[in-house]
Amino acid sequence: MDASTTAPPAIDMEKLQAFSMRTITDIAAGYVGVMVSLGTKLGLYKALAGAGPLSAKEVAGRAGCAERYVREWLNAQAAAGYLGYHPVSDTYELSPEQAMVLADEDSPAYIPHAWNVPASMWFDEPKALEAFRTGRGVAWGEHHERMACGIAAFYRNGYKASLVPQWLPALQGVVGQLEAGIDVADIGCGHGHSTLLMAQAFPHSRFHGFDTHAASIVEARRLADEAGVSHQVRFDLARATDYPDKRYGLICFFDVLHDLGDPVAAARHAASVLAPGGTVMLVEPFANDRVEDNAGTVGQLYYTGSTLICCAHAISEGGKMVLGAQAGPARLADVFRKAGFSHFRQAAATPFNLIFEARR
């Protein structure tokens, strides 16, 4: 049969309807993100948190906003399941669990700042289109400012919940070294949240944060002053392959190795500046080794971020090995093997991160 006369494939209407509804669900999630951002910046969640059932007028009064807008916002949030609605009393309520996610800025589950990331992706769409068509990279500093702020704030609480109490103790002998006093390098430190958490927990150690993004270094220095640890912490501009040798007892890569244009060179430099008996802690996004095993919500988030942020930055640095955010344990182990490390093991895992320990 001539190919031009081949009948088109039959459409399964149930599958069509199901997939169409899936796309509508994703669009609705985008709408919800705008509502979350507004609710955070206007103080609407804080007005609701711990207050019990409130009318729209009461919420508006507490937040200093116009009642009609607030009522529609509340209805949108109730429809999305982001708060509860009591029809008899016509009141709205934020449960303790919802408050942890939406109102408590110190909660490890706090999420609103993460919505800055897709906002930045939309702002940066012209750059992404050009990158796809030309193959050029997009460096971290070329993104809209909401990208750096969103990612730093999003990771801060997760690190606060896990880094000192869980991840560092999972590394052999590292906590004892930190308590005695060693030099620590935080590579790709961003706003320095991870660096400051370690500095506050281990006052006898000295911490050095390095990043290529000047605005992030400025913010990290400000936060160090605010936290009262400037005497113990230093932040400087440097690449992952040329920061100074301090004979570090611990070198940390927090969700950054996969962003680098030459991760093997970065691991090799780390090996060259480690003190005898020193450790590299590698924290990477959770991933399995095979694409088919990364299907699901977490994989969807990470592959999307990888496309527009991680791979784009690695390519901007020359892209000798563009790992992407879903590299998986086998590829990461291979990076450190090629860099001359003889010891590499997975020390811990969460639904969002893998934590590895490497030694020469």
From TrEMBL:
Source taxon at top rank: Bacteria
Sorted UniProt keywords: Methyltransferase, Transferase
Alphabetized SUPFAM superfamilies for the sequence: S-adenosyl-L-methionine-dependent methyltransferases, Winged helix' DNA-binding domain
CDD domains: AdoMet_MTases
S-adenosylmethionine-dependent methyltransferase Rv2258c-like winged HTH domain location: 32-103
Matching InterPro entries: Methyltranfer_dom, SAM-binding_MTase, SAM-dependent_MTases_sf, WH-like_DNA-bd_sf, WH_DNA-bd_sf, WHD_Rv2258c
Domain Methyltransferase per the UniProt entry, residue ranges: 179-289
PANTHER family the UniProt entry points to: METHYLTRANSFERASE DOMAIN-CONTAINING PROTEIN (PTHR45128:SF2), METHYLTRANSFERASE TYPE 11 (PTHR45128)
UniProt-recorded name of the protein: Methyltransferase domain-containing protein
Organism: Caenimonas sedimenti
